[in-house]
Amino acid sequence: MSDVAIRVIPCLDVAAGRVVKGVNFLNLRDAGDPVELARLYYAQGADEITFLDVTATVEDRATMYETVTATAEQVFIPLTVGGGVRAVEDVTRLLASGADKVGVNSAAIARPALVGEIADRFGAQVLVLSLDVKRSPRTDSGFVVTTHGGRTETDLDALAWAREAIERGAGELLVNSIDADGTKQGFDLELVTAMRGISTVPVIASGGAGALEHFAPAVAAGADAVLAASVFHDGLLTVGLVKDALREEGVVIR
Q1: Predicted confidence (pLDDT) per residue in 181-212, tens digit
Q2: Is 179 in the active site?
Q3: Which of 53, 60, 90, 132 is flagged as catalytic?
Q4: Which residue of 113, 166, 201, 251 has the smallest Cβ count within 10 Å?
């Protein structure tokens, strides 16, 4: 296990100014006000907050900037914002609104040069490559990258794409298992291990957290940070409880 402190990151999927949650990215339901939830998780000891604008339509865009600004005024930990980031200008606006890091996914797949453009302008530490990964027999690694919230499979091998994005300047990998997402059955440890094996940057494990005992195995598999959503939104776990459980397993926590 690494001596670097492991981060615990609540994730807020935001649509039209509200937090939503589903299973395998389907059947989204309302889970509350993003600013209030971010403030709650900050009070619980979250190391970072991730906002994902899951609809990312043009009309929701202004709402998202307002949400980021309102959160940044009250929550003094790093904010990562993803969803609908298509150009350097989008990153400029998000950082100006109070984001510390920006997640890119579909737009980087459509135009990989975007990764380098963002990294060159703002530094690799600002750029999180968000990967929505599914198991697939079609790729060498057995994992394929998806877009549109897991609904559309690409032809990209997830490990090959992650490696390319790191070479282009991605500073962090947010690795979300679509198969595990919202199931509360635990992280996809095989996926985390595979990503750790090829990555020279921090790996955030996402998708599947359902119980306290799920977090330490993800760290043992190579995650530098563990991300969860529904277990926090539903009040099943708190950030503090997760950190206590990790500490008991000998994990170094911030």
Answers
A1: 878 899 999 999 999 999 999 999 999 999 99
A2: no
A3: 132
A4: 113
